[in-house]
Amino acid sequence: MIELEGPLGKSDAVNRELVSLERELATLCKNNTIDPFGLYLYGLVLKEKGNENLARKVLVESVNSYPWNWSAWSELQSLCTTVDILNGLNLSNHWMKEFFLASIYQELRMHNESLSKYENLQGMFTFSNYIQAQIAKARYSLREFEQVEVIFEDLLRNDPYRVEDMDTYSNVLYTKECFSALSYLAHRVIMTDKYRPESCCIIGNYYSLKGQHEKSVVYFRRALKLNKNYLSAWTLMGHEYVEMKNTPAAVDAYRRAVDINPRDYRAWYGLGQAYEMMGMPHYALHYFRKSVFFQPIDSRLWIAMAQCYESEQLHMLEEAIKCYKRAANCNDTEAIALHRLAMLHRELDQPEEAAFYYKKDLERMEAEEREGPNLVEALMFLATHYKTQKRFEEAEVYCTRLLDYTGPERETAKSLLRGMRIAQSGFPSMDVEHFHP
Q1: Which of 88, 160, 186, 395 is 20 to 30 A from 33, alpha carbon to alpha carbon?
Q2: DSSP secondary-structure letter at 426?
Q3: Where does 351-428 have alpha helices with state H?
Q4: CATH number of the domain at 163-260, please?
Q5: What is the average pLDDT across 375-391?
Q6: What's the pTM?
Q7: Which tens digit of pLDDT belongs to each residue from 198-233?
Q8: What totals of helices (H) and strands (E) does the chain contain, helices first?
Q9: Could you tell me the CATH superfamily of domain 262-334?
Q10: Could you give the residue ranges of the DSSP H alpha helices within 91-246?
């Protein structure tokens, strides 16, 4: 297969022995003279031939007879693409079944259920590095990056030569822009084993963070030469091509990722971004919808979909508002959703709703001690809005805050305050500045 397809191509290689293998194994199965490992092999052959229902049945029989063959559980997991299929399996109770369920829950994006299973298993297998790594991956999927970093640091202390799952750790360091920690991790895995897909992926992330996207692609391609089904590398390579403005190559990489795993929300999101760059919002929207279906707790995906609805070609502002509301409820760390909600309601001439979101955005900026144009915009709108509503006391609070600034907003605030004093007293302003000496 490798000779026919090259390092990254698709292969049309066919295993001509499958028919005879299936015939032989089916006969053994029928005569009940097959052991659990033979059943595992039979399941593999059936899967290759596309007979998934029978493959599942045979693999269930294999793991029920001999629960310690993790390879059989992994093949069974690849055949369970929905919760309904999983619930239909007739599995015997065994502690290995708990490992299987924890793993498949993660695959089916049921992260809280997966985390709960792994935490229960940790009580039984206290010093298991595997379980610790899986807990970190589940928390990574829940975007709990601070806790993930702590778990991986602890894991590296216990197992300093570990390469497995360290690509997830590198993704966290990349997201948090921890240059020195990512550099240290990259050097560490090179010294341990540089010919591992995870090692290449970590180095790719390191070069990406440095802005050296061409070098980054070289390492992601190297990871794929070592394992052409390495999902993370396809997706990350797609991101690099987006950065390099090579949209066709990005689309191809993302498509390969969703071919391997149709539930990979990052690849669907990447496809949405790529089509948005090409000015095709209808296509982009289709892919963004796919990504939020598989990862509804990620605010970035809802924001991307909202921005797509806002585009000139679509201009579906009510739909954009719904998406921004979902983003605001999903811990929008980039603080985009509340501001956009306020602006869209303002554009739709809905001042009460706009004021509500400006107020919420202002509270958040104060809590995070953030300054900037968004803060001034919120104060200006609220001051003007409450003055129009004749709620002068509230308007005065926002005007007074605007007096701390030096730009045109200060003069606007002075003007608003004068206007409110006139309205409250019923007399023209008798400012001392207006009298001649």
Answers
A1: 88
A2: S
A3: 351-367, 373-388, 392-402, 408-425
A4: 1.25.40.10
A5: 85
A6: 0.81
A7: 999 999 999 999 999 999 999 999 999 999 889 999
A8: 25, 0
A9: Tetratricopeptide repeat domain (1.25.40.10)
A10: 95-107, 111-124, 129-141, 145-158, 166-175, 179-193, 197-209, 213-226, 231-243
